[in-house]
Amino acid sequence: MTAERGALRGRVGVFLAAMILALAACVDVTNTTEAAGDDTISVFGAYATQIEEPWDGVIHSALEAEQTAGRITYEFTDDIGYAGDMERVLTEVAQENQPDIIFGDAFGNEEAVRRVAAQFPEIAFVFGSGGGPADPNFSVFDNWIHEPAYLAGMLAGGLSESGVIGVVGGYPVPEVNRITNAFVAGAQEVNPEVEVKVTFLNSWFDPAAAKEAALAQIAEGADVLYAERFGVIEAAAENGLLAFGNMSDQKELGPESVVSSVVWDMAPTVKYVIDQVMAGSYTAQDLKDFSMMGKGGASLAEVNADVANGVPQELIDQVTAKEEAIRTGNFRVPINEAQPAGAIVPTE
Length: 348
Description:
The structure is a single chain. The protein is an alpha/beta fold. Helices cover 34% and strands 18% of the residues. It is built from nine helices and 13 strands. The strands form two sheets. It has a seven-stranded mixed β-sheet with strand order 1-2-4-3-5-6-7, sandwiched between helices. A six-stranded mixed β-sheet has the order 9-8-10-11-12-13, with helices on both faces. Helix 5 (174-190) links the parallel strand 8 and strand 9 (195-200). It starts with 14 loop residues before the first strand and ends in a 21-residue tail after the last helix. The relative contact order is 0.13.
């Protein structure tokens, strides 16, 4: 980098120009650090999509909270993409910034991220990944939010008047499939005859395409939609229909449409990793459990009482009872990572 790390203070929008080792390209780095204490460690976020995309946004928010608490200094770069730039960017970050930890998402960049991690064993690499951990420094996590997705499905099945609900997802990969299948299973518990339309975009962040897919489902009778991807809620709100958010509480995107959201909280994962690095005991591991309801990494957002026609208390009570059964271990949401039957998947 052309500036000392920590020389700039402020929030998003402050960028440092970075010289690339072999290419005349730049990495935009946002420095969110305020006052760094002697007992803090340095963390860098490397995100394939824009942080406005909910998946990476959840990681970013958890790291910002740790920085606000004074435990870390935090910089990030986003919108890196999937065309080979991730390896270049990560290499530069590791060499120039030399952070203690790098967080990010490896989906679509799996081999590149792992190659860089192997070159810098002194740095903890903690990435969303469909693969396993790799010694000595590559840990993995994922959004294991199938449990609240099941609860959201119960609400959707109970609220649909047409008997048709829809799901718009990113890619038909295990992570998205298990969320979608859990949502469908929850809906079927309440309404065994419910029809579920599933469309994949083959994109992680394309709000326009997501909205278009949602509108197509609405045209086919769907009156409740699960917005696994950003853009679906807008379609539901414009048509006076109900929707469920994903990753974070998205009620503000449709105050009269969003019934609830399937929430992923990276705080337990982030705190655990930071504690380990601070203690000098970090090892490569699968951090799956920290993203589940049992450890506070997943939840169903509070049901929105302001949606059109409200939500019957009897249905809320049914969902609340199931939520308690999940938390106490008396009910296990099935993990089904197969592509949902009948799903629409683009051929290109």
